[in-house]
């Protein structure tokens, strides 16, 4: 939550509390059933905003005045080299890649909460813009320190999250941040955003995002790929805290494991799905596969899956695929585009950009005549793989 969002939540809490007080003191419920309904809604708003405020502030500094809060924040931050640049000290530059100690992390947590409380109370009424800028910079620096690499003790637990831009990654980042807040810096938490086009360290062997590495000191204990719920994450941290270990795990689902292919099941697989249908010995597929493999993982929020067409399953028929190679683009459970036949790099880049960046509801169907017809190939591989599609569907346009 940003400082501005925290401020808005604080004001909503104050408005809800004021409305409920007026309702109760004047017994307004006896005049209108509509007001009774609004009272219930205001109580829900009060509870929710109070919960959000508690999550961000942890209850620290609530009894202090704005001036006392400012003095405490300034005193704590001035004593820490990690916050020196917030006060204009260029002699001690801030290195985002440097490891952060447990003590500095604990201080960052305290300052993050104190600055949030101050901002919620004082930012609108404070005439001093320099003070607002200083508090904001301390808050932002605290958040950077909390997410920075950690210097772990031999037995200290660590969580390292690799995430990209996407629905599951955003939810996973939130869960890790909640765990971080719960343990108040006692766990070393590091979060790495892997931007589109970037590749994480090959040694990590990450195939899917989000991915969480669980550590004890410098030792890797286990890895989990895919989204994991807050309760499951808390359970794993609890196991590590008890001194026990657990094996690697994954919640990444495959279209091959679906009992039936429908909108709901596809939606649950992910926000952006790209399925590549291919036949191992097909000439057009041999030319296309290297291009697809090179570009398919450029946008990390696009979940890519290659499906080899054999006589053992009929997944291709679920997507209306009767020729290979074929690319099927699925967004939020709906097929929004398809390409059949060979595809060059520039065309695939263009389709991926439309799919992942512009979020177009329909990127259209395209085709190339260099294809293998599935039914003919499965009946006679030697003849089938030489066939070119001379009559593409009228609903498709040539690439």
In short:
The chain is an alpha/beta fold. The chain contains 13 helices and 13 strands.
Describe the protein's architecture and organization:
The structure is a single chain. This protein has 399 residues and is of the alpha/beta class. The chain has three domains: 3-145, no CATH class; 157-250, 3-Layer(aba) Sandwich (Glutaredoxin); 255-398, Glutaredoxin, CATH 3.40.30.10. The chain has helices at residues 3-25, 33-57, 66-78, 102-122, 129-147, 167-183, 230-241, 263-269, 283-295, 315-318, 345-356, 374-379, 381-384; strands at residues 157-163, 188-193, 211-216, 219-225, 249-250, 272-278, 302-308, 323-324, 326-331, 334-340, 364-367, 372-373, 397-398. Strand 9 (326-331) and strand 10 form a beta hairpin. The longest helix is centred in the N-terminal third of the chain and has 25 residues, at 33-57.
């Amino acid at each position: 939550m940003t400082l501005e969002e925290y401020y808005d939540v604080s004001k909503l809490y104050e408005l809800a509390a004021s409305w409920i007080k007026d309702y109760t003191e004047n017994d307004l419920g006896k005049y209108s059933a509509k007001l009774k309904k609004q009272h219930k809604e205001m109580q829900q708003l009060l509870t929710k905003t109070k919960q959000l405020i508690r999550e961000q502030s942890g209850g620290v500094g609530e009894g202090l005045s704005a001036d006392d809060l400012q003095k405490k924040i300034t005193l704590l931050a001035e004593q820490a080299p990690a916050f020196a640049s917030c006060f204009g000290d260029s002699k001690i530059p801030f290195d985002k890649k440097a490891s952060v100690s447990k003590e500095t992390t604990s201080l960052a947590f305290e300052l993050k909460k104190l600055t949030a409380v101050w901002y919620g109370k004082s930012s609108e009424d404070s005439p001093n813009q320099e003070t607002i800028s200083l508090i904001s910079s301390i808050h932002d620096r605290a958040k950077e320190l909390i997410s920075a690499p950690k210097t772990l003790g031999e037995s200290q637990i660590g969580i390292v999250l690799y995430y990209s831009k996407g629905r599951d990654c955003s939810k996973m980042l939130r869960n890790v941040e909640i765990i971080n807040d719960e343990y108040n810096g006692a766990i070393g938490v590091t979060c790495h955003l892997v931007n589109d086009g970037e590749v994480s360290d090959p040694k990590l062997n990450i195939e899917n995002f989000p991915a969480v590495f669980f550590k004890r000191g410098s030792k890797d204990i286990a890895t989990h790929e895919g989204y994991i719920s807050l309760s499951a994450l808390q359970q794993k941290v609890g196991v590590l805290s008890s001194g026990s270990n657990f094996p690697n795990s994954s919640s990444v689902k495959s279209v091959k494991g679906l009992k039936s292919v429908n909108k709901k099941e596809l939606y649950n697989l992910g926000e952006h799905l790209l399925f590549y249908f291919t036949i191992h010995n097909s000439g057009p597929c041999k030319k296309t596969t290297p291009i697809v493999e090179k570009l398919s993982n450029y946008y990390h929020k696009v979940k890519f899956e290659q499906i080899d067409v054999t006589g053992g399953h009929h997944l291709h028929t679920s997507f209306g695929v009767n020729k290979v190679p074929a690319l099927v683009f699925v967004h939020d459970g709906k097929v929004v585009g398809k390409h059949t036949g060979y595809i060059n790099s520039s065309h695939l880049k263009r389709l991926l950009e439309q799919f992942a960046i512009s979020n177009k509801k329909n990127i259209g169907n395209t085709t190339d005549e260099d294809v293998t017809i599935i039914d003919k190939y499965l009946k006679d591989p030697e003849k089938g793989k030489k066939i070119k599609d001379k009559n593409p569907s009228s609903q498709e346009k040539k690439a």
